[in-house]
Write a structure and sequence with these properties.
The complex is a heterodimer. Chain A is α+β, with helices and mostly antiparallel strands. Chain A has 6 helices and 6 strands; from the N terminus they run H-H-E-H-H-E-H-E-E-E-E-H. In chain A, strands 1-2-6-5-4-3 form a 6-stranded antiparallel beta sheet, with helices on both faces. Chain B is mostly helical. The chains are: A alpha+beta, B mainly alpha.
C-alpha cells in the first residue's frame, strides 16, 4: 500500500516534468502533431548534434560549419494539409512574452515569421513559421545563433550548397 | 542386570544400534551402585547425558526468540525510498527542462547534417526575403 502511494506521487512528478519540457511553442505543437500522419517531422537532438562532429566536414563551407557547430537541436514540422489553419494555430501557441518578433514577411506568395528567444544579447532559439498555398512549416533552431552569419549563409551557399546537398543525399542512398 | 547383557548393550550402543529403551537401561545401570571398576568411565559418560537432559530452557525462551526474529515494520525504509523517489523525479524534471525530449529522425549523422544544412538554407533564404525585400 505504501509503495502504491509512492508510485502515484512519482507518476505525478513525472507527468509534471514532461509537460514542462513540452511547454515551448514548437514543443506544444510537436507534442500534438508528431504522430499525426498529415505532418512530416524532422528532429535532430542535442545528442545527434554532438555526433555531427564525427562526420566528414571537408565539403562543408566554413560559414556553415561554424553555424552548425553552435546549434544544439533542430525541430521541423510541416504539412501540406490546410496550411493556413495550422499556421494560425501555431501563431496562437507562441507566447510572445518569451519570444521577440524578428522578421515578418508578407507578400502575395509567402507569409513568414521569425521570432527569437534572447537573453544577454545571445539568441538561444530561432523559430520560423512559414506558410504559403503549398504548405506550412515550423522550424526551431536551438543553440547559440548568429543571425548575421545565418543571413549570409544563403548567398554563399545558394549554388554550391545545393549541389553539396544533392551529393550528400546521393551518397546516402 | 547381567554383566554379559550390559556388555552386549554397550557393544550395540557404540554401534549406534541401541533403542531408546536400551539406552535407558544402560543409563540406569551405570547410575547403580555395582559398576565394575573397568566401566567407571562409562558411568561418567551416562551420568553426563543424564545431567544434560535435566537442563531446561530458561523462562520465556521461545518468546525471547520470537521477539528477536519478529519482522518489524520498515518505516524508515519507506521514508528513505520516498525521499529517493522525489530526488529521482526532481532530477528527471531538471534534466528534461534542460534538454527537451527530442526523438531523432535520423540515426546517421551524415543524414542529420544534410537535414540541418537544408533547414539552415531555407531559414537563411526566408530571412533574406524579409531583410532585402526588394531584391
Amino acid at each position: 500500500m505504501r509503495y502504491n502511494k509512492l508510485l502515484v506521487v512519482l507518476g505525478l512528478l513525472l507527468v509534471g516534468a514532461v509537460s514542462y519540457a513540452q511547454d515551448d511553442a514548437i514543443g506544444k505543437f510537436f507534442g500534438k502533431y508528431v504522430e499525426d500522419s498529415r505532418f512530416s517531422v524532422v528532429s535532430v537532438s542535442p545528442k545527434m548534434f554532438r555526433l555531427l562532429s564525427k562526420v566528414n566536414w571537408d565539403t562543408i563551407p566554413a560559414d556553415l560549419r561554424q553555424t552548425v557547430s553552435k546549434l544544439q537541436s533542430l525541430r521541423i514540422i510541416s504539412t501540406e494539409t490546410t496550411p493556413f489553419v495550422f499556421y494560425k494555430e501555431a501563431l496562437s501557441k507562441i507566447d510572445m512574452k518569451e519570444y521577440e518578433e524578428l522578421i515578418s514577411v508578407r507578400d502575395k506568395n509567402d507569409n513568414i515569421r521569425f521570432v527569437v528567444k534572447e537573453s544577454g544579447g545571445i539568441i538561444h532559439e530561432l523559430l520560423m513559421i512559414a506558410v504559403d498555398n503549398d504548405g506550412f512549416t515550423m522550424m526551431s533552431f536551438v543553440g547559440d545563433i548568429d543571425l548575421d552569419k545565418l543571413a549570409r549563409l544563403s548567398s554563399s551557399m545558394d549554388i554550391k550548397g545545393l549541389e553539396d546537398l544533392k551529393n550528400a543525399k546521393r551518397k546516402n542512398k | 542386570m547381567e554383566r554379559e547383557q550390559i556388555a552386549q548393550l554397550l557393544e550395540k550402543y557404540w554401534q549406534v544400534e541401541t533403542t531408546v529403551e536400551e539406552e535407558k537401561m544402560l543409563a540406569e545401570y551405570f547410575r547403580g551402585p555395582d559398576v565394575p571398576a573397568e566401566w567407571e568411565m562409562y558411568r561418567e559418560i551416562f551420568s553426563f547425558y543424564e545431567q544434560e537432559r535435566k537442563v531446561k530452557p530458561g523462562e520465556g525462551l521461545e518468546e525471547r526468540i520470537m521477539e528477536r526474529v519478529r519482522p518489524r515494520p520498515k518505516l524508515w525504509g519507506a521514508w528513505w525510498s520516498a525521499a529517493a523517489c522525489i530526488v529521482v523525479a526532481l532530477g528527471i524534471s531538471v534534466y528534461q527542462r534542460d534538454t527537451p525530449t527530442i526523438k531523432d529522425t535520423y540515426d546517421d549523422p551524415q543524414q542529420a547534417l544534410a537535414a540541418v544544412q537544408k533547414a539552415l538554407l531555407v531559414a537563411s533564404r526566408n530571412m533574406n526575403k524579409g531583410l532585402h525585400p526588394l531584391k
